[in-house]
Amino acid sequence: MSVRRALAALVRAGRAVHWYTTTLLGDHDYARYVAHVARVHPGTDPGSEAAYWRARHAEQDAHPGARCC
Fold first, then answer.
1. DSSP notation for 9-55
2. pLDDT for position 35
3. CA 21 → CA 1, 14, 18, distances in Å?
4. By residue range, what is the domain housing residue 25?
5. How do residues 6-54 score in pLDDT, each as one tens digit?
6. Dihedral of CA 54/59/62/68: which sign?
7. Which of 14, 18, 42, 49 sits a CA distance of 20 to 30 A from 25?
8. Distances 1 to 15, 16, 53 between C-alpha atoms, Å
């Protein structure tokens, strides 16, 4: 395997780990929510990101479901 191929594989692996981590931690959740509101409820203000996270954490605290912590 050439050095170039090895570096390309390493970069791909790094990007995959970054995607997995940010997805697992919910870094893109607000952006997905805003896109959903724009698609399903056009013209509606989705609210601030801070309000989104407050509501989301309050919902998780009120209904923990099957999460580990």
1. HHHHHHHHHHHHHHHHHTTTHHHHHHHHHHHHSTT-----HHHHHHH
2. 97
3. 28, 11, 5
4. 3-62
5. 999 999 999 999 999 988 888 899 999 999 999 999 999 999 999 999 9
6. negative
7. 42
8. 20, 21, 46
Is residue 34 within 8 A of residue 53, CB to CB? The reply is no
Does residue 68 fall inside a structural domain?
Answer: no
Length of the chain equals 69
Cα-only R_g, the chain: 18
The residue to which tokens 């959903």 are assigned: 36
Six token digits for residue 58: 């309050």
